[in-house]
């Protein structure tokens, strides 16, 4: 059901690692009269926030329950392993899961990757959060496999990361309650999909400018044009000179 009710603001939830700045900037340019409020939530609580009315839409991590939430996938992230800078992994460009077989791979309780089997050796305890796991990596306890945006979010000067080619990946999507597709949600959908402000699918189409009448080229209508200077008109420069071309003029020669 599409609502037309006016809301004091548009509330956008977003999960750690997602950067909504570009879309927020476009929103503020196009709809300056509707403030956009950002609401940071964890990946696990994002669906409940949306269904409970705590936000109008959210930038979440898939999967979500498509029976109650609509979702538009936006992008899929590279998965990386976070290691100390002096770790052997730091010397290569990328690794596979088997390359971590001898490492303790930390598995935080808020992990968002869908593992069939976690690589490496299990830790004695699972850290509560990804931030806690990063601290343990810095302490030399183990390594951590996460989406690249989370590695950047928790960046430390003494740590680095490398892509893991065969690890599960995480996709980010725009999601909102299935029965609450409001006009403002449609506006934000248009922004993330790259529609222009004049897109026919937007709800604020601008009136097209009237077509300019085409200027008609003047019809010569048989009007004779004055020949350009220096061009011949086909007449002899001297009237009455019907002599052959090249004949010389002068007095007749007297016969002796």
UniProtKB/TrEMBL annotation:
Source superkingdom: Bacteria
Residues covered by region (Disordered): 195-256
Location of the LysR substrate-binding domain: 22-194
Keyword DNA-binding among UniProt keywords: yes
Alphabetic keyword roster: DNA-binding, Transcription, Transcription regulation
Biased segments, Low complexity type: 230-239
Family annotation (SUPFAM superfamilies): Periplasmic binding protein-like II (SSF53850)
Sequence ranges of Basic residues compositional bias: 246-256
GO CC terms, sorted: protein-DNA complex
Pfam families in alphabetical order: LysR_substrate
GO molecular function: DNA binding; DNA-binding transcription factor activity
Record family assignment: Belongs to the LysR transcriptional regulatory family.
Protein known as: LysR family transcriptional regulator
């Amino acid at each position: 059901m599409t609502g037309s009710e006016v809301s004091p603001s548009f509330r956008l939830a977003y999960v750690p690692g997602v950067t909504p700045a570009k879309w927020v900037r476009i929103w503020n340019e196009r709809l300056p009269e509707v403030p956009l409020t950002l609401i940071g939530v964890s990946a696990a609580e994002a669906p409940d926030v949306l269904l409970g009315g705590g936000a109008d839409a959210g930038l979440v991590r898939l999967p979500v329950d498509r029976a109650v939430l609509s979702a538009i996938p936006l992008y899929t992230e590279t998965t990386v392993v976070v290691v100390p800078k002096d770790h052997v992994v730091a010397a290569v460009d990328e690794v596979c899961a088997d390359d971590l077989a001898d490492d303790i791979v930390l598995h935080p309780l808020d992990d968002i990757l869908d593992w069939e089997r976690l690589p490496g050796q299990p830790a004695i305890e699972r850290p509560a959060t990804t931030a806690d796991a990063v601290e343990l990596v810095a302490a030399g306890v183990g390594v951590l496999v996460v989406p690249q945006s989370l590695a950047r979010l928790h960046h430390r000067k003494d740590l680095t990361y490398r892509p893991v080619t065969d690890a599960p990946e995480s996709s980010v999507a725009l999601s909102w309650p299935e029965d609450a597709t409001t006009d403002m949600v449609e506006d934000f959908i248009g922004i993330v999909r790259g529609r222009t402000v004049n897109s026919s699918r937007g709800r604020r189409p601008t009136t097209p400018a009237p077509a300019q009448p085409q200027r008609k080229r003047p019809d010569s209508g048989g009007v004779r044009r004055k020949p350009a200077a220096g061009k011949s008109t086909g007449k002899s420069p001297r009237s009455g000179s019907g002599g052959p071309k090249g004949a010389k003029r002068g007095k007749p020669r007297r016969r002796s």
